[in-house]
Fold:
Amino acid sequence: MATLADGTPLPGKLFIVEGIDGSGKSTQLDLLRKWLIATGYCVAFSEWNSSPLVRDTTKRGKKKKLLTPTTFSLLHAVDFAHRLQQQMIPALRAGAIVLADRYAYTAFVRDVARGVDPAWVREVYAFAVVPTVALYFRVPLDESLRRIVTGRPKVKFYEAGLDLGLSDDPYESYRIFQARILREYDRLVDEFGLHVIDATLPIVDQQEIVRAVVEPHLEGALRAEPNPWRSVLSTEHLSGHYLDSLLQQVARS
Amino acid sequence: MTRVRFYGRGLPGVTDQQFAGKLIAIEGPDGVGRSTQIALLREWLEASGYAVSLSGLRRSELASVGIDAAKQGHTLGHTTMALYYAVDLADRLERVIIPALRAGFVVLTDRYLYSLIARNEVRGVDGAWIRSLMGFALVPDAIFFLRAKVEDLIPRVLGTRGFDYWESGMDFLGHSDYYQSFAEYQARMLAAFARLGQEYGFRDVDASGSIESVFQQLRDGIREVVQELKPRPTQG
Structure:
């Protein structure tokens, strides 16, 4: 069982996914989440760079191009620390399953690809909890670019690594930057024991592997009945239309 | 028909003796499933022919945006926050709840002044002051309290929105740990609710069981409260 630095036990399970943009990791994590919930587990979810805490600062930094590799790296660490403390650790302490879309490894690859010292960024994230399972969705660069370019019209400045002056052409810059990130990921596989999944496989096959990898770790995880309102609707002859709008509201927030 | 009574000095201009509708408060700790139950009750009441109006903490047109902003800043003192919530409650009473009651609606309110009193008492705000502050609140026709243990709340909170700063008492308990803080805060809130239940006459609903069993307890209780609103069949 994982523990905090002070020895506090974390009986929950932490499953994280990593991979470059277009690797399909979020799709796989979403499928895993739905399966776990349907199987009757209590599941919490946290996504990289999603906390409102630094949103305005990051937005301002991006808009005015104020961010350096160091400040950009630190802002992500602020976001991560906040989500870890507020979302992930409490859920792990309660024994729940926590799913994280990207984890500290994203900082280890992206920030290092931006020129940040690899040892320093690892020290910065020393407070991170070691995941139960870390899945790395490996995809060749050309395949990921094909997926990204068809999915999104335009790559953004920092996303393309344009801050690094690799190339003036956003697509060329993006390509060079992603190639660097890919190389860094390959280094992490052995260093942190990432479980590599071939992200060129059909979605269904990948999900089968993901479930098989995760399943042995589920024992003892906190359970929660899925759709606990189902029976009241049938016995009381209610359609649940107000409940539906409530659930939609919760999903949006 | 409901006789109009206030907890304290009441609201200026409200001189009605009776309201045609019924005011029902649903109270209970964070994550106990109040919103789910209210969504089901609203459907059931409407299907049974009652007009329903909903209200709830921080839903006033006047003060909800301001309170949300104040909560983001984490800067307000307890007294200021209590007063801001009083603005919210007064606005809802004067402009939503009382007009609906006059028109004969069943008004379901998701939390009422008891949550506000409990939150303030656990934070050390003077109980007599908060009670006189909230003296403009109408006495409802029934208060249903959804009772559960802290262990029941944790999976529900985790499965939906996660631990919230205020629902975990992070503003005053002094733990940096959300889990510990949530458990302690909710335990204190439950103790405060237990005292308030005696004082205000809560009807207890066991909310540790299934949604279905909670709904059935609430439905039976509410049916008793609202049945006098139904026109009786006249003998031909």
The mean pLDDT of chain B is 92. Strands of chain B lie at 2-3, 18-19, 22-27, 52-56, 106-110, 142-147, 203-206. The first strand of chain B starts at residue 2 and ends at 3.
